[in-house]
């Protein structure tokens, strides 16, 4: 008969396998999106988060029903991890009515309010004020819900970041601020835009609890997120979480990446890919990995077929939902 410790280890292993499946799905989805974009099938700009899947999955798996998020222009992973089906995400990228924003938003404006996604934002740090507002609403209503903002290291230099943290701490709202620190602020190395190395110090001026976590370790992200969410949910104030991660792609598809050494990505793919790190840790048999990979690939390919068969919006509806 299994001991409590053995049962706990088994449960932890199964949870990590679920994390791996979701991270792999996000990876295969984004690879397929990049492929279709390069083929000229998707309009606009495209930003993928290849290499940052552990942050999206680790944080979103720690959320409870009723919690909400706001994302960035790099939103596919957050959106899928929050529960939106890949079919709906892909349909949005193709500009179809079946998409999450009914074809109005595209890659940088993925919304799914029913599933607690208050939206991606093409404005750097644009989701931060809205998350403070949502958290304030939860507090005033006495609801045990938490609002989570995702943003990059570059967003910590803008006014709305500081205004949002200041008000969140002043009002002690149930918010968690997740900084995906890939050290490139789109295309600017950290040493050229940050006067500090320890990003947790960004929260010091506001007396806010802050923590750092290895953003390539999905379990570490999950545990840190659980701790941060509990503090916020218990009414003990907001939390600033710095997830140190690596972006294994350019800022956008087609980015020549002249701002970093060419050999850097090759080295990072060998040593810091969160999917490969977790796969090695779980010591998966080849057949188990191949089955997992086939399933993720199938879902990604099916989403493309779903999107291509989707409904094109009517030209006369172009100005609907537009406010001035």
């Amino acid at each position: 008969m299994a001991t409590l410790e053995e049962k706990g280890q088994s449960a932890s292993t199964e949870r990590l396998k679920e994390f791996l499946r979701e991270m792999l799905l996000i990876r295969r989805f984004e690879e397929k999106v990049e492929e279709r974009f390069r083929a000229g099938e998707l309009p606009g700009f495209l930003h993928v988060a290849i290499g940052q899947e552990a942050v999206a999955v680790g944080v979103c798996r720690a959320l409870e029903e009723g919690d909400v998020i706001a994302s960035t222009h790099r939103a596919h992973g957050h959106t899928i991890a929050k529960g939106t089906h890949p079919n709906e995400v892909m349909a949005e990228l193709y500009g179809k009515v079946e998409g999450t924003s009914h074809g109005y938003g595209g890659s940088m404006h993925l919304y799914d309010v029913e599933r607690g996604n208050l939206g991606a934002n093409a404005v750097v740090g644009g989701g931060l004020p809205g998350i403070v507002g949502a958290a304030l609403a939860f507090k005033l209503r006495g609801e045990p819900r938490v609002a989570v903002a995702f943003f990059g290291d570059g967003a910590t230099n803008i006014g709305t970041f500081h205004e949002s943290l200041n008000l969140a701490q002043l009002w002690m709202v149930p918010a968690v601020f997740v900084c995906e620190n890939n050290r490139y602020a789109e295309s600017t190395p950290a040493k050229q835009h940050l006067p500090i190395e320890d990003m947790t110090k960004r929260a010091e001026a506001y007396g806010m609890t802050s923590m750092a976590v290895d953003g390539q370790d999905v379990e570490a992200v999950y545990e840190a997120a659980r701790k941060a969410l509990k503090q916020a949910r218990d009414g003990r104030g907001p939390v600033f979480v710095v997830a140190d991660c690596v972006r294994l792609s350019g800022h956008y598809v087609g980015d020549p990446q002249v701002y970093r050494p060419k050999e850097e990505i090759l080295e990072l793919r060998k040593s810091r890919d969160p999917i490969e790190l977790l796969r090695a840790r779980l010591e998966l048999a080849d057949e188990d990995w191949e089955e997992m990979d086939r399933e993720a690939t199938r879902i990604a390919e099916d989403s493309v077929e779903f999107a291509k068969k989707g409904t094109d919006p009517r030209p006369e509806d172009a100005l609907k939902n537009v406010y001035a």
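The longest strand covers residues 175-181. Residues 88 and 99 are 5 Å apart (CA to CA).
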